Amino acid sequence: MRRLLSLCVLFLLQNVAAWSFSRRHKTLPNLSVEPVEPKAFPLQTPHSGRHFLPSHSAYRQPFWRFFSKHRGNARFTEGWYYRLTLEDVSFAIIISIEDPGHRPSSDLRLACIQVVGPRDGYIVQANRDDSLFWAWDRQQGLGCNFEYKPGYDKHVMKMQTNLSPEVWRKTVQSGFQILPTHFLGRVRGRDGTVGGLFDETDEVGTCDFDFRVVPLCGWGDVNGAQKSTAGWLASFEVFEPHWQVTMADARASGQITWNNQTYHFVDAPFYAEKNWGAALPTKWYWTQCNSFDGYQQLSVTAGGGIRSIPFGRKESLGMVSIHYNGKLYEAVPWTGTMRWKVSTWGYWELEGNCTVGDRPFEARIVYECDPDETKGLVFRAPTPDEGMVRFCKDTFEAKTTLSLWELEWDPATKSFLRKKGPPLIDRAQSTQGGAEIGGGPWWDEWERVSELKQPIRALLRLPVRLKTLRKRLKRRVS
Hints:
It holds the Pfam family Tocopherol_cycl. The chain has 4 helices and 23 strands. It is mainly beta. It has 2 domains: 35-275, no CATH class; 279-478, AttH-like fold (Beta Barrel). The strands form 2 sheets. Strands 12, 13, 14, 15, 16, 17, 18, 19, 20, 21, 22 and 23 form a 12-stranded antiparallel beta sheet that branches. Strands 1-2-3-4-8-9-10-11 form an 8-stranded antiparallel β-barrel. Strand 10 (242-258) and strand 11 (261-277) form a beta hairpin. The longest helix is centred in the N-terminal third of the chain and has 23 residues, at 2-24. The chain is globular. The model is unreliable at 6-11 and 13-31 (pLDDT under 50).
């Protein structure tokens, strides 16, 4: 009874505070309201909105928040990854929130942005105050303002979430604001290659970005429904962690300034994904490329690792998926097979096929870099026990080769074979492949065929079976 009374008093005080604020600060932008529309654009994927419960001052806390598992001691992190590929350099913007709203406060609570730039440059800015971080529930919208310019009351400004671009540029000294198609940021961080997150250092790096994005592919056919990257079960707490590619291919226009050098760009390749859960897998690899020579729209994303599933079990699985001319070719372990061979550093060989549905195919992709010339950048990722520590290694300079074949059923061999004639994609090339290894241990080459345990395999395959059944029924009726 005492707890219920406390909740009621808290709710009343929050409403009074919000009313008082709106009365005293009419000249400031209104307290931001999340969009009513569930989608910002037709290609928006599932899981584009937040999964954590913000503790930002602008949010009225629902009473059930106090009973959420994320309010207690359970680890939780949500992260967003964006890659911008220019002609001779690449940038990665990596944003994360850890243990938001924990009661009692978690030692690993953190709001963080990492930016990877030219020549493996690496800037990190972070704050233990998770209440600075806001995010939308239904679509991509998130931000965190670390510091405001002189003359602006930080207590007043902290009540704001998304601001108009003009107001944001005028008031924010350092921070970021990511909206569905507009990215704003002023990062004033430390050199991420040395020391801890909050060590005192004279090495200060800067990165300002201001650009707009036009999505070309979400996760699915351009004219079809957008899908969850890990299947429909990603909407439930089945896997750990979860993964969603939100923009498999897009084009960005604007500018980014890295340590006083400004890069202007128009229609540059852009890519976006996110993760959420207790932490990243214990061991994983990841590759991505959407800057192939001579192709207008070709993007490949592949990844695999060891993840947790119910009843304390783990499984090793991977996928390789291609968006080509508006169509998704998805090789996942519930509709085909996938194999990988990844070295300790410098070589990623991935093969996958799909033999279920109306678009059977086979794909092969290889990423290569010279380990002696391309050392890779070791940067931070969330871990279950230590929080944000150096846990993975990346490069944006992998030589990439991609081939894609259509398959057809052969009655003689009772198997799927490659169609006669040229492949759909014949050794497409790029020198700007993104490739990563993480977790560990990486003592030797990791070669595996993706495995998916039952009954999860059957459940994930259910939508495909239902689609096939509907087609058969439709043919019978007609």
